[in-house]
């Protein structure tokens, strides 16, 4: 069954350590404060299956081949689209997503050398009519990003440990995707102060989101 997509899909992208998750949360808070029907989701991990997939992908106790890894990400995305994105977008909500299709193209395509045309075909099959209205790419050098990752208190996951060369390929992949999609993707300097990045994102969002009165801060709704 086809649903008319009346909502707005906004995605946040960037290599590990870019600060995209922080920005997605900050923007969500402002949208809710201003009365917008907004929510935050993520990939992988926004559905029951996605939670299992996320744990598998981040586990250091498993050796997962690159092809199996790719299809785990795609299985997560398929469930995410059907269980979360399509229903929410069909009711007019603004959905912010921490990582989406560009992440797979950058990480599995440019980073792991899977054929880009194959990824594009699989994404067309999974997404149907769902396309992000806007994507915010938090750009940062791999050196600086890995420095941030290593400063975190928590233990690094399997993907974060792939090293500088891998993340350099992923970053270049993201920038190439942005060059091919200049209307959709807005590149932001991830080394700027947190508040300045948020200000720039909100200024850009104002171009296509209606301005609603501030109704006071509501409880944040997230899928985690």
TrEMBL record:
NCBIfam families: DTMP_kinase (TIGR00041). This is Thymidylate kinase. Residues 12-201 form the Thymidylate kinase-like domain. The gene is tmk. PANTHER family: THYMIDYLATE KINASE, UMP-CMP KINASE 2, MITOCHONDRIAL. Pfam families: Thymidylate_kin. The keyword ATP-binding applies. It comes from the Bacteria. Gene3D superfamilies: P-loop containing nucleotide triphosphate hydrolases. ATP binds at residues 14-21. It catalyses: dTMP + ATP = dTDP + ADP. Belongs to the thymidylate kinase family. One of its GO terms (molecular function) is dTMP kinase activity. The keyword Nucleotide-binding applies. One of its GO terms (biological process) is dUDP biosynthetic process. Keywords: ATP-binding, Kinase, Nucleotide biosynthesis, Nucleotide-binding, Transferase. Its EC number is 2.7.4.9. It is an enzyme of class 2 (transferase). Phosphorylation of dTMP to form dTDP in both de novo and salvage pathways of dTTP synthesis. One of its GO terms (cellular component) is cytosol.
């Amino acid at each position: 069954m086809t649903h008319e997509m009346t909502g707005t899909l906004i995605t946040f992208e960037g290599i590990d350590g870019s600060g995209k998750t922080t920005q997605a949360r900050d923007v969500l808070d402002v949208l809710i404060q201003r009365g917008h029907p907004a929510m935050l989701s993520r990939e992988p991990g926004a559905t029951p299956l996605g939670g299992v997939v996320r744990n598998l992908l981040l586990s250091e106790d498993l050796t997962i081949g690159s092809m199996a890894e790719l299809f785990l990400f795609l299985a997560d995305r398929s469930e995410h689209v059907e269980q979360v994105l399509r229903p929410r977008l069909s009711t007019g909500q603004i959905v912010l997503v921490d990582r989406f299709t560009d992440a797979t193209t950058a990480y599995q395509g440019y980073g792991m050398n899977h054929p880009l045309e194959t990824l594009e075909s699989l994404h067309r099959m999974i997404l149907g009519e769902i396309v992000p209205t806007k994507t915010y790419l938090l750009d940062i050098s791999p050196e600086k990003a890995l420095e941030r990752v290593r400063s975190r208190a928590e233990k690094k996951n399997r993907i974060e440990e792939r090293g500088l060369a891998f993340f350099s390929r992923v970053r270049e992949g993201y920038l190439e995707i942005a060059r091919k999609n200049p209307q959709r993707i807005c590149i932001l300097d991830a080394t700027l102060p947190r508040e300045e990045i948020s200000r720039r994102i909100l200024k850009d969002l104002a171009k296509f989101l209606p301005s609603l009165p501030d109704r006071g801060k509501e409880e944040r709704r997230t899928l985690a």
